[in-house]
Amino acid sequence: MNLLLSSNQHNLHQHITITGSKSESNRALLLQALYPNITIENLSNSDDSQVMKKGLQVYNGEVDIHHAGTAMRFLTAFFATQAERNVVLTGSQRMTERPIKILVDALRQLGAEIEYVKNEGYPPLKIKGKKITNNKVSLAANVSSQYISALLLVAPTLENGLELTLEGKITSVPYIKMTLALLTEIGVKSDFSGNVITVSPQKEVVDKTLIVESDWSSASYFYGISALCNVGSEISLSSYKATSLQGDSVLKELYEQFGVETIFNKTIVTLKKVREVSKDEVINFDLANAPDIAQTIAVTCFGLGLECELSGLHTLKIKETDRLEALKTELSKLGANISVTDKELFLQPSEEIKENVAIDTYNDHRMAMAFAPLALKVPIRINDAEVVSKSYPDFWKDMEALHFKVSEV
């Protein structure tokens, strides 16, 4: 499905309800599988969470997680520690190109039995679940935090808990802290001191309801829209917390530089455009702790004609696509002067945005949604637009609620 987007509405006053965080939901689902007396409210309706939920219910046989990277990492750790369960964990073509050796090596250090079905270091994986008694493991700290969270989530069910040593500079710390906060919420003791994380063993937990906060990554696209709107525009979103476990909640501070103020009223957050941004402004953000919002921010800067330098983006190379190269290709089509390294993005100010350009999405939900706000500036086409269902199935419907014209082409 290819869509043409356009909008002549620059004074927005709308409310949008966003589903639960995919990151929190997938962690909560794994904890619920380990401790069945946990209940979950406001679960994400994303494809990734549906795949995760379905995968957890397989006892023997093949588990296909399609494009869901989080599910691949979390389920690898889950099945490796589930005695009597034998599975082959596989996914899409792109998933078989995404490295998982670091996590597999760590689980093998603990005594797990995991084999590569095809290529060394990559899915599919043949996993024979077993009781794990070893409790000490080390892991490079500058890799995807999902490897680290995968180990931490299963840690309380290991006979002797876990002592995880992180080697080097730790990235994506908020996601690690999110995992530890959820463990604390269900009564599991843990400690994060220096580069060592310890999790105590816990056979059972008391009845607990985990309420998932709505997704801040999904909110980022409305921050992008707000930044490109006129002063006075307001978009309200629910349901959010002023103190969030999600690293992407840093949007509140970052988008102040784009003239967007964030106002909380209980669980409603309002994004208000309060000032125009000077063309002389240079945006310089280190996004090591929130890499998933890099695409949104780069497109916002391009739409406002601003120079930007984004760093801390090394994990974007192994996402649904190589997001840095994808951004370079697609923004260049629109007329951007952009360059990237393996961990940085540099964008020069642009006066003109080309119209009716077709943006390729590379099986990446964030490419589709990050570019959508540009329809406030010029008509824009989004190819394979249905890819948004990975994290935000209602996105195009919500864009129409904001008076964007969305038509199939």
3D structure, described in words:
The N and C termini lie close together (8 Å). By secondary structure, the chain is an alpha/beta fold. The protein has twelve helices and 22 strands. The mean pLDDT is 95. It has helices at residues 22-34, 47-56, 69-80, 101-109, 145-154, 173-185, 216-228, 251-254, 294-304, 323-333, 365-371, 395-401; strands at residues 3-6, 13-17, 38-41, 60-64, 86-90, 113-116, 125-128, 136-140, 162-167, 190-193, 196-199, 208-211, 234-238, 260-265, 268-273, 282-286, 307-311, 337-340, 345-348, 357-359, 380-382, 405-408. It is globular, with a radius of gyration of 21 Å. α1 (22-34) runs parallel beside α2 (47-56).
Record the SSE blueprint.
Elements: E1 3-6, E2 13-17, H1 22-34, E3 38-41, H2 47-56, E4 60-64, H3 69-80, E5 86-90, H4 101-109, E6 113-116, E7 125-128, E8 136-140, H5 145-154, E9 162-167, H6 173-185, E10 190-193, E11 196-199, E12 208-211, H7 216-228, E13 234-238, H8 251-254, E14 260-265, E15 268-273, E16 282-286, H9 294-304, E17 307-311, H10 323-333, E18 337-340, E19 345-348, E20 357-359, H11 365-371, E21 380-382, H12 395-401, E22 405-408
Parallel strand pairs: 2-13, 3-12, 4-5, 8-9, 16-17, 20-21
Antiparallel strand pairs: 1-21, 1-22, 5-7, 6-7, 9-11, 10-11, 13-15, 14-15, 17-19, 18-19
